[in-house]
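Narrative of activities, Objective 1.

The group set out to show that a structural description can be obtained from nothing but a protein's sequence at a throughput compatible with the screening campaign. Below is one input-output pair from the validation batch, recorded exactly as produced.
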Amino acid sequence: TFFTNYILSELDEHTNYSISVSASTSVGKGPSSTLTVVTDQDVPSSQVRNLTAVANYSSITISWSSPVMSDLNGVPTRYTLRYSGVEFQTEEKTVVVNYTSSTNETVSVSGLEAYTVYKISVTLSTSVGEGDAANIEIRTLETVPTGTPTDLTTNVLSANIISVTWDHPLPIEQNGVIISYTLTYKGVERDTDYREMVLLSSEPYFTNYILTNLDEHTTYDITVAASTSIGIGPDTGVRTITDQDVPSAAPNNVVTSVVNSTAILLTWDAPDLTDRNGILLYYTLTYFGLVLDEVVRVVNHTIVGSNHSNQSYVFTELQEYTVYEFSVASFTTVGKGTAATVEQRTSQSAPSAAPSYLNVQVLSSSIVLVTWYEPPFSEQNGVLTQYRITWHGLERDTEERLEDIPVNSTSNTSYVLTDLDAYTSYEVNVSSFTSVGAGPISSTTVTTLQDIPSSEVRNLTAVANYSSITISWSSPVMSDLNGVPTRYTLRYSGVEFQTEEKTVVVNYTSSTNETVSVSGLEAYTVYKISVTLSTSVGEGDAANIEIRTLETVPTGTPTDLTTNVLSANIISVTWDHPLPIEQNGVIISYTLTYKGVERDTTSRDVILYSNDTFFTNYILSELDEHTNYSISVSASTSVGKGPSSTLTVVTDQDVPSSQVRNLTAV
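Output recorded for this entry:
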């Protein structure tokens, strides 16, 4: 249909084409006609390359590369950069950058919102129009909030509590993630510094807080500021007054002065301004007599003057010499505050009654606890300054002892009498004093407890023979008995031989002197003797004496008697002393007796004295050969000889001592 025209398609944009046409017959193709033609420009066929962005909190730097040459599709004229905030739908802004031969381009945009996602697009244009856009999104960095918390409100819950609530800053002014709120508050009239609370986003009540422990009826400046991780933003504030409350302190400078015996002047100043906790309306005064247990009386006092200072009131028709308690308290619309209390009394005199409930408690044989109560309060007639206690023994003492006991904060209504005599009756008196003088006396009697005697028996003596001892003594003096004596206890034991201690109990009698004999004792033995006197409490100290029984003849024989035959004519004899307990005195000699059994008709004695060199051994000589000898040894004291130890021994053999007799020969 189109034999002489043709449409070339799918050509490249803005490209030089060489086009030639030739005719052909059946024989062949003829020469061609040729021309050059350029296709029109078009928009670029690809986006810019390597689109990147780097942000801080208020600007973004965007970089990119141009498309490859084959995709330009014409002569590039400009880049068009568009950007807008995603969250807050800010107006899209455009930056046009003329195309240059540089492959890479960089553009910075500023004046951006912090912590905001921006959508960025870049296109390349030819004369025909813009190519496709390359797109990127990036969030600017955080910075401190530029907006304050919103909707800050307070709710006064009481005189000490305020509830504070708020909302976040406007989103566009948050400039990041709100991680905390800083709440500060300060009492305008009282505080010099702000107190601060930091509320973290992790806490349940992030946008509200209850302030406690606040001062009553006080104006508070309260501020709240939001923080991102970068820092704290501007604050918003509110001023709130806490409710009134009862005054938290008593009136100041409360003073009383005596006008006369029946009137007292009370003066005072208002509580400090910071303690009033509201607007003072009036004062309430109360008073009553402490001694007389009067009913409390109340007077309402209207405030005089605008500055509340130098208030006064005169109480009349009071009782003489009576302690009164006065109190004054201030009132607000909420109620009564703390009262200041003072006491005042009239002049003194001596007590008109004795100390009451005087009591004595015997603690031991020498100690008595005396207790009492002060006189009835209404009869003390002043400030008690001291108590005077006096005491003396009824049986022995003539001198009265005295002690003044000052009255202090613990009243001092007891005293311990010490160093008393045991088992003795005493009279005890107590009186009280004011600065004017002494009052009547309370009196009682008491007897101390028994004790063991305070001294030993007297004149302890002993007389001994060889088997018994007679002991004599006198009782202690009457003042040292310390009770009712019950018995004497006599104890004795041998010292050298540690014989068992024996006891003799002698009932006490009215007799001053006592004598006791003990028998069955060992001769020539030192005995330790003690005598005590007892009351129902126990034994007193012992009086002691030592004495030795007299000597007698030994009752034991010498021990370890042995012999040693030295030859046919000599025997060595040795022995040891009798047992100590059987010597019965000092051994002054030993008697050695020996006799030939077959030949001698009489015994021979050898006496060895204690001053001899060989006192417990002896050598018998000039004995007969091969002869039985009976040998015995006995010990002697100065009194006489005791029993003997005996043994028999045979001397050795020897050659015959004579020739044969009647020698004859035939």
